[in-house]
Amino acid sequence: MGAVLLTETVKDCIPAKPEQFLRNFYNHLQEESRIEYGTDPYSGQWGAAGEGLNVLTMNPLKDYQAAQDYAEEHCDKWGPALAIPYLGTRKTYDAASKKIFDRISTASKEVEARCVKIHKEVQSTKSKTKGCTKCGSSVARKYIDQYCNCPVCGKKHSLMSASQDKYLNNAITKLKDLKKLKRSKVPGAGTCYVIAAVAPE
Ligand SMILES: [Zn+2]
Q1: What's the CA-to-centroid distance between 131 and ligand 1, angstroms?
Q2: What is the mean pLDDT for each group of 10 consecutive residues in the chain (201 residues)?
Q3: Would you say 180 and 173 are in contact if contact means Cβ atoms under 8 Å apart?
Q4: Which end of the chain, C or N, has fewer beta carbons within 10 A?
Q5: 201: Cβ–Cβ under 8 A, 6 or more apart, which residues?
Q6: Contact 48, 200 (CB under 8 A)
């Protein structure tokens, strides 16, 4: 039974603190692989490689080839995968795009805040039940979920008043419009990573 070294390069949109980003990337690789190739521990695919990713904190190696060589020397069968830093050309979002991301984040928080506010208002009505605006069911207050959807007909926001629904939808529309804005990446020198793991086959 053999083993195969698998490598994948991560170059774009790496955040300043890359650990979680890289771990998510690796988890995603494994998950996709298991969906495509199954969970055979000898598949020779990412899904069969060790669990977990060790993000190395050493100074970045001089280039991509150096990172590949490092992977061949240091990756263990059954061991965790390695994220090996090297200096390369990577893409990052330009300043205007970063601003769009900030606005999206703010808009997304606003949607959540409005949801919470409306839910509180709906929950604090004097009567023990709330009428659904879509199917007419009386819903006991304790069954009103955080989105104020009706548990009987399932229609969204149906336990809100028209004005609460509008108030929430305005924030949702704003968020959707921001997500449509084009964001662009610019190349620059920086730390890239080779993700490497050994998979039994
Ligand atoms: Zn309903």
Answers
A1: 8
A2: 92 90 95 88 91 95 97 89 96 91 94 93 87 92 88 90 94 95 91 96 91
A3: no
A4: N
A5: 1, 2, 3, 4, 42, 43, 44, 48
A6: yes
